C-alpha cells in the first residue's frame, strides 16, 4: 500500500465497522507528577506501539479527581469514542472498574486482581511483594542499622504490595525500621527530614522510597540538608529510568519493565476487541530486575 501511496480512510473504516479504532487509557490522575512520571511514559509507549502496529490509536484521560474521571470515561463510552480501555492502576472499590464492568466494554488492568470477579479480567503486573523483598534484602546487606521506608498513602495495590514486601523482610530479619507515609510534597518531606537530620548522620541508615517520583523529591531534600549519599545514608527506590540512572549519585532501583507491561496490556486489549484467543494467562506477571548502583555502595 505504501508503494501505491494508499492509506485507509479512517473515517470510512469507522462508518463501515462501527468501531472507533481507538483504545482509552485511564490514568489515576493528570497532575504533573503523573504526566511526567517515566513509568507512565514508558507504559504508554508500549501500549501505543502495539496499537499502531494494528491500526489503532489511543486517547488518554485528563481528569484529576475521581468524580470527573468517572464522567470522562462514561462520555467516552456513550459517545463510542473508544472501543476498549486499559486501566493503568488497580485498587479496591474502584468506581471506574465497576463502571466498565457494568457496561460490558472490553478492558485490561495494569495491576493485580483484588477480588474473585477480577479473575475474569486480564491483569498485567509485577510481583511487587517479591520485588520489594529483593530490594530490601540488598539494602540490609549493606551493613545498615535502620531503614526508613517512605511511601505514598496506600490507596493503590502496587503501594500496598511494596509496603508488605518491605515489612515482611525487615520483621523476619529483625531490622529496626520506620514506615512513613508522605505525599509527593517537598515542604512536607523537608519538614520530616529536618526533624530527623541529626539521626540520619549518626546512624548507619538507609532510605527506601516506594516510587521514583517521590524518590527524586527525597534526593533533592537530602542534598539541601547536606546529607551525603551514600556516606551518611544509602538510598534505593522502584522503577528504573533515565532519571534514576543519572541522578547524583546513580540510584539503586528495581526495574519493573514498564514498556513490557504496556506492550502486554496492548496485546491483551487488542486481542479482546478482535476476539483473538489469548496466548497469555488472565493474570500475567512481568519479571523485575535489581539494578545496583552507587547510592547503596559505601
TrEMBL record:
Q: Which GO terms describe its molecular function?
A: DNA-binding transcription factor activity; transcription cis-regulatory region binding
Keywords in UniProt for this one? DNA-binding, Transcription, Transcription regulation
Q: Which SUPFAM superfamilies match?
A: Periplasmic binding protein-like I
Asked if the record carries the keyword Transit peptide, the reply is no
Q: Which domain of life is it from?
A: Bacteria
Establish whether keyword RNA-binding is in the entry.
no
Domain Transcriptional regulator LacI/GalR-like sensor per the UniProt entry, residue ranges: 137-296
Alphabetized Pfam families for the sequence = Peripla_BP_3
Gene3D superfamilies, per database record: 3.40.50.2300
* InterPro entries in alphabetical order: LacI/GalR-like_sensor, Peripla_BP_I
- This chain's protein is named Maltose operon transcriptional repressor
Species the sequence originates in: Staphylococcus simiae CCM 7213 = CCUG 51256
